Amino acid sequence: MNKRTLAITRAVGVIGASAALVVGITFANLGSTATLSNNTISTATAGLEVQIVDSGFAQSQQGFTITNLVPGQNSDPFYFNIRTTGAVPLTLTAHVPAVPTYGGFNPGGFSGVHIKITQFDNDAVVYADTTLADLLAGNVTINGGPLAGNSQIQLKAVAMIDSAVVTGSNAHVDGFDLVFSGTSL
Q1: In this structure, are strands 140-147 and 122-131 parallel, antiparallel, or unpaired?
Q2: What pLDDT is stored for residue 6 in this prediction?
Q3: How confident is the model at residue 25 (pLDDT cuts 50, 70, 90)?
Q4: Lowest mean pLDDT among 15-24, 91-100, 172-181
Q5: How far is Cα 159 from Cα 80, in angstroms, rounded to an integer?
Q6: HSE on the CB side for 160, CA within 13 Å?
Q7: What pTM did the predictor assign?
Q8: What span, in angstroms and rounded, lies between the C-alpha atoms of 94 and 134?
Q9: How far is the C-alpha of 94 from the C-alpha of 140, rounded, in Å?
Q10: H helices within 44-181, ranges in order?
Q11: Are 109 and 170 in contact (CB under 8 A)?
Q12: Share of the chain above pLDDT 90, in %
């Protein structure tokens, strides 16, 4: 054998060995699978309900009616409870979604209509001290941290109208909704 034939024989041998190795590895791999079947992903539930004295919890309740309020003085308290109906803790906000019927105010009078929400048995624990103007402008944070899932807080609200915004003999704000919203953390 000459050198050239020997080189060709070696090259053919290396190529053949490589092919045999590839074929052996290919057939030597065994396969197997495992399956997670019938999977479901869903969110936790989150909801809010309100309760007034002598009623059950519901998503909507009749609000307060305050009459004979002397400007500059707080109204009698209005007691209510808010509860979460799901397992998710919620941060609370409040807003008034539409401009109510009103009269007897000077321009900008909604900034003189105050609503203060406190713990039902402790005026020092203030959850919100806001104005109707702020509630109309957007969400007002209800302080106190998130309301834990499946829990409730007992609250009271008082209203006050600044005497500086009253024009004439009677000021009134009628038929507005005070909407509480909960947002998960």
Answers
A1: unpaired
A2: 60
A3: low
A4: 15-24
A5: 14
A6: 12
A7: 0.77
A8: 10
A9: 5
A10: 132-137
A11: no
A12: 62
CB-based contact 142:125 (threshold 8 Å): no
How far is the C-alpha of 96 from the C-alpha of 75, rounded, in Å?
19
- Give the integer Cα–Cα distance in Å for 25 and 19: 10
How many other C-beta atoms can be found within 10 angstroms of the C-beta atom of residue 184? 14
φ/ψ region of 74 (left if φ > 0, alpha if ψ in -120 to 50, else beta) reads: beta
CA nearest neighbour of 159 among 169, 168, 171: 171
Give the Cβ contact number of residue 94 at 10 Å: 21
Q: From CA 67, how far away is CA 70, in angstroms rounded?
A: 9
Helix-strand-coil percent breakdown of the chain, rounded to 5?
Answer: 20, 35, 40
- CB-based contact 115:98 (threshold 8 Å): no
